[in-house]
Amino acid sequence: MRGALGGPRVLLRRLREVMAEPVSAQERLDKIVVLIAANMVAEVCSVYVLRVDGTLELYATEGLNRQAVHLTVMRSDEGLVGLVATEASPINLSDAQAHPAFSYRPETGEEIYRSFLGVPILRAGNTLGVLVVQNRARRTYSEEEVEALQTTAMVLAEMIASGELTSLAQPGAEPAVRRPVHVSGAALTDAIALGHVVLHEPRVVITNFIADDVQKELRRLGVAIETLRAELDLMLESGEVAEGGEHRDVLEAYRMFAHDRGWVHKLEEAVLTGLTAEAAVERVQSDTRARMLRQTDPYLRERLHDFDDLAHRLQRQLLGYDHAPARDKLPEHAIIVARSMGPAALLDYDRNRLRGLIIEEGGPNSHVAIVARALGIAAVGEVPNATGLVDPGDGIIVDGVTGDVHVRPTPDMEAAYVERVRLRARRQLQYLSLRDRPSVTKDGQPITLMINAGLPVDLPHIAETGAAGIGLFRTELQFMVAAQFPRTSEQLALYRNVLDAAGGKPVVFRTLDIGGDKVLPYMRNYEEENPALGWRAIRLGLDRPGLLRSQVRAMLRAASGRELRIMFPMVAMVSEFDEAKGLVERELTHLRRHGHRLPERVEVGTMLEVPSLLFQLDELLERTDFLSVGSNDLLQFMFAADRGNARVANRFDPLSVPVLRVFRLIVERANAHGKSVTLCGELASKPIGALALIAVGFRAFSVLPSAVGPVKAMLLDLDAGKVERLVASLMALPLGSASVRDKLTAFAEAEGLTL
Ligand code: PEP
Ligand code: MG
């Protein structure tokens, strides 16, 4: 490096000595700035630390007025230092005072310095402070000098992150690395948890930043990169798919990056500044993260994950790290923070200690969200950079109801949440006390409340809630959480367990509802323009009868000597129902012929989720034993509004006259045919939804296990006749504002119902 005394390697070596000295934090910082200034032949070297309040405080300086240390505090949008912090990238100027962002602080005496080089102090892509050198003369700092200063900043980042500087701070103005952070994402479950961070993929901990022998580090890096490339080749050749549903194209992308000359070159450059190979990977990755986190292009941001992964793999190569998190040694109240996660990985954690999940990827319909709901843990998804915001052991609050996440919460925030959790627990106790009360309205109308389920973890909910049975067993969940196609024997075992757990209460097994958004990672996926309207559910089942047949056979055998209810999803035409029912009958004949003991009775029904069935109701009801309305899909198709798209989610109100007309029609026709009808979509899981449905004649629901309590509490106090009359009168009015939500809310309030 031109103009430097001894170059960056000497600087790093000296820094290591200073880091090891038994001196106070302030003395150490003071020594560091002197060292850097001398090494870079700069007249000034200063360290600014980002504080919890978002301002930047001068923590140490060589060259500026020392009296200004801990007194000079700037907003993070102020001056060149602020610019370095917000942009998270170096600023290198030969005439700083000519820069529009230059701001002059008289107490520091910096007016005489013209050239300025500031680099962010970064950790995991987050800015913790700014490191600056200045010279009186105009000069442009060389690329190598910028590199060297960034490397030095890395050592400072570790010092800040270790908490060593906290003792120097005023209360409320601590270094920002420990500051409370509030972020929001997608609310995935109806639960709230307070706990401590456990990283799903623990960060590699680097203890040795500074190289003893640079050539040796270059060799280590070279070998690790070669091994990494070979490993990726092997994975691609063997077609291995890693946990979490990594697909082939992701591995292809990794391989491309691993061969990227630019990336390898940057790593080598970082080693040449005097870092160990693993610290060099960290440095380059932190820069990449900082740059990419500021990208608005979702495609590029997505690539960040690939780069992150690759860097992690390389670090593990270098340190021989066993990557698997200690799932059986989970601390109490563990909140898992993950970038992405498959459902099986979540099930691997010790359930007694697991309280919550925060995930960067994964919306409400993701498989991991489904499992989180079944486990009853608090979960928030779609939180950008979640893994970069936390450190293992940090206190954290996950609000799965609102989608809020509070990292390192303030005592006030924590107290508020403790209170919320306590209130919810009290409410749960009240619901529990209703468990054994008959589910009958105040005016004597019995309402059947069943639960939706799909995984073994759901089964205890039948007894816990006192539900009348399982109104919808989503068999696809077993397929979605598995790493490969469940064998017929595994299906049989699950269905048998389910029937055992139900202990004679009815269970409605729905045949596979895959396709659309429910993809199986191990099954060939056909690109479809409109997957929700595509080759899915019963369509796939009828076109590939082998799959449907083996599932039906497993159900029939599981229910030998007992009652069985089978239901088909996404039926659009009566003829599809006929075909599917024919398949069940053929299977029954087959089992009978082979001497198997048959179920005592088999009922065959269908979901009503496709609007075309509304115009075949009589024909359908003549054939089917029961109907179950899937309001999630029925509403999405009625309004042509994607059920998973937040932009259109609130556009149409399900509690509106056109929807209620449809529901009333369904109930009327089912009653006329003497067939039972249930509603198993999410609408019934909200007390106000259930209220509206009771008003148009529904008397059976299948709801989320957590909804049994609230819905039951509502209906026990309800005069069903009264709400029927109210809604009938609203529906008789000319169609103006079609929503009846306000009127129902007012009714509930007047009647003392809790919604
Ligand atoms: C529905 O569509 O309402 C339903 C219950 O099925 P799923 O949510 O599994 O599509
Ligand atoms: Mg559906």
UniProtKB/TrEMBL annotation:
It is an enzyme of class 2 (transferase). It is found in: Cytoplasm. SMART domains: GAF (SM00065). Its cofactor is Mg(2+). Keywords: Cytoplasm, Kinase, Magnesium, Metal-binding, Phosphotransferase system, Pyruvate, Sugar transport, Transferase, Transport. It catalyses: L-histidyl-[protein] + phosphoenolpyruvate = N(pros)-phospho-L-histidyl-[protein] + pyruvate. Gene3D superfamilies: 3.30.450.40, Phosphoenolpyruvate-binding domains, Phosphohistidine domain, PtsI, HPr-binding domain. Its EC number is 2.7.3.9. Belongs to the PEP-utilizing enzyme family. This is phosphoenolpyruvate--protein phosphotransferase. It comes from Rhodoplanes roseus. The gene is ptsP.
